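Notebook, student rotation project (T.W.).
Task set for the rotation: take a protein with a known small-molecule partner, predict the structure of the complex, and write up what can be learned from the model alone. Partner molecule chosen: zinc ion. Sequence and SMILES entered below by T.W., checked by me.
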Amino acid sequence: MTRPFSSRGAISMVSFILLFVLSGTHSSMARQANPEAVSPEPSSSASWLAEHQATAAALIDAAMKDSAAWDRLAYLTDTFGPRLSGSTNLERAIDWILEEMKADGLENVRGEPVKVPHWVRGDEKLVLLEPHERELGILGIGGSIGTGPGGVSGEVLVVSSFDDLAARKEEAKGKIVLWNVPFKSYGLTVAYRTNGAVRAAEAGAIASLVRSVGPFSMYTPHTGTSSYDDNVPRIPHAAVTIEDAMMMQRMQDRGHTIRVRLEMDALWLPDADSRNVVGEIVGSEYPDEVIVLGGHIDSWDVGTGAMDDAGGCVAAWEALRLMKELGLTPKRTIRVVMWTNEENGLRGANAYRDAHFDELDNHILAMESDAGVFKPIGFGFTGSDAAFDMITQIGKLLDPIESGLVTRGGGGADIGPIMAEGVPGMGLRVDGSRYFWYHHTNADYVDKLDPDHVARSVATMAVHAWVVADMDQRLPR
Ligand SMILES: [Zn+2]
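Predicted structure of the complex:
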């Protein structure tokens, strides 16, 4: 049986997110936006670009004129809720999007079938038994096994790192290990969520708790993926809040005994049917050449997955809707894709690569938004120097909304598989200062996103997609 989470998949997701976050931290330096200035001035001397300036300005104006994108995002996330792979919510959301895309006038609208893993959280709780009795807030980590009836009870050993546990291995036997590792960056800290259960079990622990992976907390536990190792016993694995991790650290430092009972009904069901959502504007001159843009439509089963990543999906989708609204037909095909199962399997991204493998030579560019549609500053691009130069020039058309910066290095988990086959790729870069406050929590709602920022994200994706699709020359590889 194939394991639902390959560690390779988990690493690729993490490293892509890390790229965004590292680059996103610079975004706080972005200047304040001037919402009035939405028409590009001629800012580039590149003659091939001149003919696209008016269209870019029209797309920016259309995106910025109202809150249509935010409204659609709110409708989607309020109506269908969180969308974990295998859930009815996810498939109902996809059904609705397909109908709406058709109503928007997009072409070749379809759901491309994908078999996805199906993990169900069930009821779960963590009860502190000693030194005082109280129920603590938790979220089981995705993919965890359940505890069985009655739960797992034991003494807690708080550790600060893998090395710390290695040094205290004898103490861990028969206990519940708590990884109290402060957030440095997502990439540096998430290893305790993904590998904590395996490493704790190797030391003989009966369950694993991890301090939520985030820089700030209002008592918000964060879920996410984890992996098991076939050679190590599987133990339950759940996230506690930063507050409770720090409290248990203080208790241990005082020499107090900490006892808890963890109860989790989590279970695995057989793989389920899902779909990658696809809609297009077919190109007038080179219909077989495709520019792909999108995000992932699945989410964790908490909050409403507005930031991660319904916002990215809607930003890409709205870019195409606005082109339709403006009566624009590009020379090449522009295709919005909403990948399924990014969060706990990457099956949608891999299925897209496999289903379109023979067309990948004609995939001109792939772009993804999966860092939250906060205030965009530009794109991180991965491809040849010649292509980077052109994308950098196109970015100048976005100077009026301050989202034109193009930097080296970027992509996304969902376009990763086709980028690995040589397709140039780029990921939307945004102000990342608050993303990990809400990431994979019950607080991921549309209110965390500003309608103005969502509109800018739409415009930023639209302008790049439009110019690459409509320019005379093919973007070089
Ligand atoms: Zn995401």
